């Protein structure tokens, strides 16, 4: 019997013949925490009386959620995290470097790796063929010390992509469509594995967006095969030697096969207050927005800013709509400056926020007021997500967010293309 | 060690309770101050939850039992979510289904999560949970419910009272 990607990686890393449903103990190649889950991880690590890390060079503390810190308690958390990093000898990613998932993709993730992070969007690195999954602080604390964790080998859904993205339609629209089809618990405990003839046309930036939101369907991982696009990305980021091709076996056993014809897709919008409440933008009429937010681990990459800048160049944001942009990393910001995107965005009336999670989690840098509506390129629109239970969050692609910022209401980006 | 039998009263909630409902983002600055954070558990989504759970656990007539619908705990990996639920006096969670990170986090905190048909439980019902057998007796309605089995490693972690005591005892994972 052939193996799925999930079975392949978990077999390799558990030194066993793992098949869906088995429970295995697997080697962890990279473990990380961020500033809102790190303090509890350290507490659990110390409570377990652990003294050292299994792999200090493959352990990272990212300061990205509350950066720069908006409150003294969070500043103190940052002190705690910096001290721990120094004492124990692990890597620390400082404020302004960028969002953990973007930096893991840029600098660390390799095909076939097992990555655990104390953040649910750790699944993002599945775009590079890494079995990457979010866990809580206790699990990560133990993984830091042992260099291992346990997994139940997930059953896989094959998402078979065919066709070509039409004008104005992106990876974000695809994943929103898919979550709308299968539901927010449709892939609970499962692996989403992406395949099909269209893969060769899905860029790494789009793959990262798609894998990032696998967790919004409940999935444990969102896995892409490792192919030429992976090879080029790794080479571009200075780790071409780490490339290895990785595909599922022919005859692998999938619990479900879901074909998606990209030609048929439209720009999609997720409506409050559930990610799976998805409709085509053409069916979302006259929704005025007070804020448009482009950024996050879902859609804060260079390609995303390029699309937004192209739409907004020479235009102005609607006077009643604030436009916030948060590049996903320092590198993204530098490249966006070099390419002139930041200039176009600022001239259009945007506020550029520092690389980091920014307004996504309702903590700072764009908290919504009562009754306000935000169109965000992030991954979650739960009630209260952006800091106010009386506010409403819609999710869409950077193109839809840019077009909507110009019109002051949720707008089909194809009007500007 | 977690109690193998548990008696308590149901506080019935609904489907799709997210970790943002359990700990709203606006309380992120309290994530390292768990007693303070626990005061805000489910504050926007279910404002009476904290006081009801507290009253039940203080009455000594058994613990509060959080009963939810499908996909409980969807969203973020914040382990503080099950931590503050436990701190509010909840002895066990029953749901139709639970998001995987939340499920694993709760067990790691020694807070039992049992999956069963919670449509058969009403708010305020008296419940008797047998953790070893995975069965629930609804003493109010007389209905007996069976729960889906968790992997043996999770039962073992729960039996030790959570992941940290489990690791302290076994010095690693045992399959």
Structure description:
Chain A has 417 residues and is an alpha/beta fold. Chain A is 30% helix and 19% strand. Chain A folds into two domains: 5-243 and 252-262, Aconitase, domain 3 (2-Layer Sandwich); 269-416, Aconitase, domain 3 (2-Layer Sandwich). In chain A, the strands form five sheets. In chain A, strands 4-3-2-5-6 form a five-stranded parallel β-sheet, with helices on one face. Chain A has a five-stranded parallel β-sheet with strand order 16-15-14-17-18. In chain A, helix 2 crosses helix 5 and helix 10 packs parallel to helix 13 (398-407). The longest helix of chain A is centred in the N-terminal third of the chain and has 17 residues, at 72-88. The relative contact order of chain A is 0.14. The mean pLDDT of chain A is 98. Chain B is an alpha/beta fold and 175 residues long. Chain B has a single domain, classed as Aconitase, domain 4 (Alpha-Beta Barrel), CATH 3.20.19.10. Helices cover 30% and strands 19% of the residues of chain B. Chain B contains seven helices and seven strands. Chains A and B meet through strand 1, helix 2, helix 3, helix 5 and strand 7 of A and helix 5 and helix 7 of B.
What features would you highlight for this structure?
heterodimer, A: 417 residues, Aconitase, domain 3, 2 domains, five-stranded parallel β-sheet, globular, B: 175 residues, alpha/beta, Aconitase, domain 4, 7 helices
């Amino acid at each position: 019997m052939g193996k799925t990607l999930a079975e392949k990686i978990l077999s390799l890393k558990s030194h066993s013949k793992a098949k869906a449903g088995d429970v295995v103990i697997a080697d962890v190649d990279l473990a990380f925490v961020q500033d809102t889950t790190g303090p509890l991880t350290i507490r659990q690590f110390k409570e377990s009386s652990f003294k050292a890390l299994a792999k200090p060079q493959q352990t990272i503390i990212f300061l990205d959620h509350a950066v720069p810190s908006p409150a003294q308690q969070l500043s103190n958390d940052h002190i705690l995290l910096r001290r721990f990093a120094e004492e124990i000898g692990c890597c620390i990613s400082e404020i302004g470097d960028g969002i953990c998932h973007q930096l893991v993709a840029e600098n660390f993730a390799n095909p076939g790796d097992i990555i655990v992070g104390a953040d649910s969007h750790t699944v993002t690195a599945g775009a590079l063929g890494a079995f990457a999954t979010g866990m809580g602080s206790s699990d990560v604390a133990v993984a830091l010390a042992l260099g291992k964790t346990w997994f139940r080998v997930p059953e896989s859904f094959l998402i078979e992509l065919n066709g070509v993205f039409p004008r104005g339609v992106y990876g974000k629209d695809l994943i929103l469509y898919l979550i709308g089809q299968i539901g927010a618990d449709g892939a609970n405990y499962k692996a989403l594995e992406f395949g099909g003839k269209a893969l060769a046309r899905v860029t790494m930036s789009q793959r990262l967006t798609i894998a990032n939101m696998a967790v919004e369907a409940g999935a444990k991982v969102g896995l892409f095969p490792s192919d030429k696009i992976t090879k080029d990305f790794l080479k571009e980021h200075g780790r071409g030697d780490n490339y290895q091709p990785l595909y599922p076996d022919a005859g692998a056993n999938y619990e479900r096969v879901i074909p998606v014809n990209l030609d048929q897709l439209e720009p999609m919008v997720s409506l409050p207050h559930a990610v799976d409440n998805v409709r085509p933008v053409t069916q979302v009429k006259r929704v005025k927005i007070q804020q448009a937010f482009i950024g996050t681990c879902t859609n804060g990459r260079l390609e995303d800013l390029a699309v937004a800048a192209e739409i907004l160049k020479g235009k102005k944001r609607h006077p009643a709509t604030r436009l916030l942009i948060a590049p996903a990393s320092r590198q993204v910001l530098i490249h966006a400056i070099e390419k002139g995107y930041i200039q176009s965005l600022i001239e259009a009336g945007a506020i550029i926020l520092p690389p980091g999670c920014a307004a996504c989690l309702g903590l700072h840098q764009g908290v919504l007021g009562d009754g306000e509506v935000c169109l965000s390129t992030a991954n979650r629109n739960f009630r209260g997500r952006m800091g106010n239970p009386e506010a409403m969050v819609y999710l869409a692609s950077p193109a839809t967010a840019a077009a909507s910022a110009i019109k002051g209401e949720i707008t089909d980006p194809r009007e500007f293309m | 060690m977690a109690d193998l039998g548990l008696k308590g009263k149901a506080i019935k909630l609904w489907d799709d309770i997210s970790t943002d409902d359990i700990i709203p983002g606006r309380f992120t600055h309290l994530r390292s101050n768990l007693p303070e954070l626990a005061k805000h558990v489910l504050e926007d989504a279910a404002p009476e939850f904290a006081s009801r759970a507290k009253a039940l656990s203080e009455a000594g007539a058994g613990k509060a039992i959080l009963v939810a619908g499908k996909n409980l705990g969807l969203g973020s990996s914040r382990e503080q979510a099950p931590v503050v639920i436990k701190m509010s006096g909840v002895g066990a969670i029953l749901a139709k289904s639970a998001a995987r990170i939340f499920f694993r986090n709760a067990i790691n905190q020694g807070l039992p999560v049992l999956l069963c048909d919670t449509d058969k439980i009403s708010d305020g019902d008296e419940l008797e949970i047998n953790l070893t057998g995975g069965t629930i007796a609804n003493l109010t309605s007389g209905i007996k419910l069976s729960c889906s089995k968790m992997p043996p490693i999770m039962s073992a972690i729960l039996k030790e009272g959570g992941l940290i005591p489990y690791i302290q005892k076994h010095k690693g994972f045992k399959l």
